[in-house]
């Protein structure tokens, strides 16, 4: 089986003067979250889309799904966690509680505020996860990377050709991911930034999947302006 975890548990504190989490802000004439969910629900190979939101936005999310007539037989909305990795674990626990999972079952994890993910990227994620057990969507770094440990002095300027910018989806065989999560030390949990790092910390391979420069994450007000420009270009 193939599951999707849309990680919509954040509050969007960097979006500026708004009380609404960024995933619920409008992109064009629909909320960002709706744009994101629909990319997955229309794909026949995906069995269920799990949307994880703050507890006080669960009913609002369900209402939006009904309002925009998405295939809600294929969507479930549950509570996210305090951190990104807690939210991910909530999705895995839900899957184990409601489905019979085998070693080939896959979970696709995706930021709720990356609404321009393409079907090509999703399909490449599925193929790579089936082959390698784990994959991460990336694009090559175009800017020079500068390392500083104190924020004042450059310590190192690594070779740019070796570096990539991470996007999502990140996709994994569920049993393998869950086993590694359960094996994490408290110290390892504190330095986690995303699910792919769980595999890296444990010395497991994570395959690269080509992303796209338009697969942006809407974090700041400028990103939302850029996203509207991208949307308008796609609709022209």
Automatic annotation (TrEMBL):
SUPFAM superfamilies cross-referenced by the UniProt entry = Nucleotide-diphospho-sugar transferases
Its Gene Ontology molecular function terms? 2-C-methyl-D-erythritol 4-phosphate cytidylyltransferase activity; D-ribitol-5-phosphate cytidylyltransferase activity
Q: What is its EC number?
A: 2.7.7.60
Catalytic class of the enzyme: transferase
Q: Which InterPro entries match?
A: IspD/TarI, IspD/TarI_cytidylyltransf_bact, ISPD_synthase_CS, Nucleotide-diphossugar_trans, TarI
> Which Gene Ontology BP terms does the record give?
cell wall organization; isoprenoid biosynthetic process
Q: Which PROSITE patterns match?
A: ISPD
One Pfam family hit: IspD
The cross-references to Gene3D superfamilies, in alphabetical order and at most eight, read:
Spore Coat Polysaccharide Biosynthesis Protein SpsA, Chain A
Entry keywords, A to Z = Cell wall biogenesis/degradation, Nucleotidyltransferase, Transferase
User: What domain of life?
Assistant: Archaea
Kindly provide the name given to this protein in its UniProt entry: 4-diphosphocytidyl-2-methyl-D-erithritol synthase, IspD
Q: Which organism is it from?
A: Methanobrevibacter smithii (strain ATCC 35061 / DSM 861 / OCM 144 / PS)
């Amino acid at each position: 089986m193939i599951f999707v975890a849309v990680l919509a548990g954040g509050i969007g504190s960097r979006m500026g003067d708004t009380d609404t989490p960024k995933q619920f802000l409008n992109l064009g004439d629909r909320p960002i979250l709706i744009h994101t969910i629909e990319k997955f629900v229309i794909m026949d190979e995906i069995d269920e889309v799990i949307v994880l939101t703050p507890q006080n936005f669960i009913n609002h999310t369900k209402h939006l799904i009904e309002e925009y007539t998405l295939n809600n037989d294929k969507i479930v909305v549950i509570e996210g966690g305090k951190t990104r990795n807690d939210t991910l674990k909530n999705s895995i626990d839900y899957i184990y509680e409601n489905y019979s999972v085998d070693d080939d079952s896959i979970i696709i994890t995706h930021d709720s505020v990356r609404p321009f993910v393409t079907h090509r990227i999703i399909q490449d994620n599925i193929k790579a996860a089936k082959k390698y057990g784990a994959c991460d969507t990336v694009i090559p770094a175009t800017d020079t990377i500068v390392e500083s440990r104190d924020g004042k002095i450059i310590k190192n300027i690594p070779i740019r050709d070796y570096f990539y910018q991470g996007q999502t989806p990140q996709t994994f065989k569920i049993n393998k991911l869950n086993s590694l999560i359960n094996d994490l030390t408290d110290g390892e949990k504190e330095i986690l930034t995303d699910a792919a790092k769980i595999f890296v910390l444990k010395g497991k391979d994570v395959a690269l999947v080509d992303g796209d420069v338009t697969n942006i994450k809407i974090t700041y007000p400028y990103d939302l302006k850029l996203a509207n420009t991208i949307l308008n270009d796609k609709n022209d």
